[in-house]
Amino acid sequence: MKREIKKWKKDKVKELAKMIDASPVVGVVDMHLLPAKQLQRMREEFRGKLEIIMSKKALITRALEKSKFKALAQHVNGMSALLLTTLDPYRLAVLLNKNRVPAPAKPGDIAPCELKISAGPTPFTPGPVIAELSELGIRTKVDAGKLVVMKDAVVAKEGDEISESLASILKRLDIHPMEVGLDLLAVFDTKKIFRGELLEISEDDYVSKVTAAHQGAFNLACAANIIVSENVVIIMSQAHSQAYNLAIAASVINEETLGMLLSLANSQCITVAHEVNAEDPKGLGESLSKFITEIDIKEVFGGE
After folding, report:
1. Is 40 exposed, middle or buried (0-12, 13-18, 19+ CB in 10 A)?
2. Binning pLDDT at 50, 70 and 90, where does residue 302 land?
């Protein structure tokens, strides 16, 4: 016999579906491990930017299936909640990442980075805790009735699993190496679904990639002689330089090339004169022979 769905559940699904359809962008997040205090702070922080809708996983899934965002239903997972917003998917992901908060480590957590206990005083008094610290490779001494860590000690490397004893010591030292927040599973803006992991890019990386794309497009436009306001000066400068070089190569005389052509002609004449003089010193006139000799002296000894 098929179990009848309770009326309050049907009403809740209709209410959620209506709210979902009224939003231009809808996201699904996992709130697993997010403490209530941090969630309340986030609600205040996000006011006017997005709305967090919490309900049972089954009701959220059913409401999405009845909405224009039904493709999101397959991404509901864990302790899910809905985000209703006008922010585009990337800005939504950036906002959520900026509002992640430190959290104490629990046994079984994976160290997100190298964890170190720094040298200095601790809140511990001498007792069994000395053995606990020693097991973690932390050397201590007693000073003014308190334990003091004698030198920095690395207690876990990035990727290590955090043990129960280490988690306890870190918590008692008020070291919170983990981060918790709203883990974005997927976002739908009525046109395309963006999985959360595809939106995990820092603002610096985003700016760097946009800058690189702009530079690539700029270089391509210059190479293809596509004139736009950003490159018109460079393309015109390149064109002028190419025209000038062509005119020099073709011995086209104008105001800009005259000086260079005369200089080249003079150099060529001197070269020919040197070759003639080398073959037959008497082959040049007296004045030209003297001129060539003076040039050779200047090249050897310098001077005007």
Report:
1. exposed
2. low
Residue 122 burial (CB count, 10 A): 17
Is 231 within the bounds of a domain?
no
Pairing assessment for the beta strands 50-54 and 80-85 based on DSSP bridges: antiparallel
Q: How many domains does the chain have?
A: 3
Instruction: Please indicate, yes or no, whether residues 136 and 261 belong to a single structural domain of this protein.
Output: no
Encode pLDDT of 236-260 as tens digits: 999 899 999 999 889 888 888 888 9
Would 17 be classed as within a structural domain? yes
Q: Which of 30, 29, 28, 26 has the alpha carbon at shortest distance from 18?
A: 26
Indicate the average pLDDT of the chain: 87
**Is pLDDT at 50 greater than 60 in this prediction?**
yes
Distance, in Å, from the CA atom of 188 to the CA atom of 21, rounded to the nearest integer, reads 12
Torsion sign, CA atoms 112, 115, 121, 124: positive
Does residue 299 register a pLDDT over 60?
no
CA–CA dist 34, 181 (Å, integer):
6
Distance separating alpha carbons of residues 292 and 274, to the nearest angstrom: 7
Domain region containing 138: 115-177
CATH of the domain at 63: 3.30.70.1730
The pLDDT of residue 300 is above 50: no
Q: What is the pLDDT of residue 286?
A: 67
* 28 neighbors 185 (Cβ within 8 angstroms): yes
User: For 190, left (φ over 0), alpha (ψ -120 to 50), or beta?
Assistant: left
